Amino acid sequence: MGHADLLDFKTYSIRHEGWPIEIGIARIVGNGADAESRLIRPHPNLDPSLWSCQSEAIHGLSRDLVEAEGIDPAGLNACFAVLNDSIVVSDAPTFERRWLLRLLRTRSSLPSMRLRDFDSFLAMTLPDSAAPARAWGLFERHAVPHRAAGDVLRLACACLAGRRT
After folding, report:
1. 107: CATH
2. pTM of the model
3. For residues 102 and 14, what is the distance between their CA atoms, to the nearest angstrom?
4. Which residues contact 94 (CB under 8 A, 6 or more apart)?
5. MF terms per GO, please (predicted)?
6. Is the Cβ–Cβ distance between 152 and 35 less than 8 Å?
């Protein structure tokens, strides 16, 4: 495997009308991984009553913080450029696809990517039948950060653990 990109969004509501407020992307290259995230300003036309206090508490992202420090969705060009023409891996591809489509509607050009679920990616890329168990073992031993960069880095480290024999 040359490289893999892993994707995670955090949202202020998982309801269909929700909006992503953080994007995290990790890249595995060789035997290492790095991750970055960006806060995303809520779309101005979205209903503010959808903001979930529960999501705010879980992710530690207040509405004031996201509105002050989040970038406009059009400013995600650099993030989407990283994902262009790649296989993108997620542990929740149905949700990631929803948030990607919501964000991509704010853009004039769309990146080309193939979104894969984490289990399928492990099965296709790891060296032996015991590898997925090694990957999931590391994944489950580490706490869920509930922030986009931490969550995708956790997935990337699990992939790397699965590679080790």
Report:
1. 3.30.420.10
2. 0.87
3. 13
4. none
5. nucleic acid binding
6. yes
